[in-house]
# Entry
Amino acid sequence: MRTLITALLAALLLAAQQPAFTPPEDLDHRRSTIISEGTRMTAYAYAPRSAPGRKLPCILMAHGWGGTQASLRSDAVVMARAGYLVVTFDYRGWGESEARVILTQPAPAQRPGGKFTAEVQEVREVVDPLDFGADWLNAIHWIVAEPQCDSARLGLWGSSFSGGLVVWAAARDPRVKALHSQVGAMGGRNLLDAGQQTLIYEESTKRARGELGYPPPGAKVIGNLRGAPIRSRFVGYAPGDEVAQASHCAMQFVIAEKEELFDNRDHAIRAHELARGPKRLINIPNITHYGIYTQARQQAQKLAIEWFDQHLKGPGR
# Structure
């Protein structure tokens, strides 16, 4: 009961925080559910009303570190109006999606049919790149079965932390034909410096021995970023090193000239150099990392549509 009350209070708080959204009259807009590793993720689909029943090129979108899909609505609307089926989703444990859960006590010895009743704890609003990556792959599996999705014309859109996740996903799924990565972080090396290595091992050992739980939801331990990282899960997460595995995918990297969160040379610039398929690198002058969401937002939207039009709608498509 305590867990249920906590979940209900969290849902009410989330609803209060979300701005009201009225879908434009020229777009179809609906809520859907994606199952990722047994957990329900919330997704929203956008499509032009002028194309009922017609197969469309599709774009899958998700937020970066600490965000939710509510912040992607304006981008999704612009791309849907450009003739795409657009689907946004929240990772497990974020936004409107459910979270994976862990038992608070050992499971009972008798579990008839593999079922039993137990108290559980949500793993909510933590940053685990491998879990996020699994969510991307499951979202791809889901979208290709959508009636309006032309699965031969699938694109991924990612920004900031998800700008690296789209590369990670494309390296693992050849159905991804194009991606747009803006101000993308291509790995977790900043968490693995000499000062962090001891902490990573200490946390991992304590979790393995049941001496350390998961961070509280939305904890801020890296600057003002919402969501504490599960540091050990960053050790094997390096999409910038895997970009060459996605030669089937046309990649566009958009960077901020005055990027302040990381060195572009170690992230998008390096990824662009290693990419083997069609590629483009664009440097937007005079903006910092978060400028991509403010003064450069319309420019970034235009660049994304141009890239997807070229590689998902171009000759032979």
Summary: The radius of gyration is 20 Å. Residues 47 and 232 are 39 Å apart (CA to CA). DSSP finds eight helices and twelve strands in the chain. Residues 2-17 form the longest helix (16 residues).
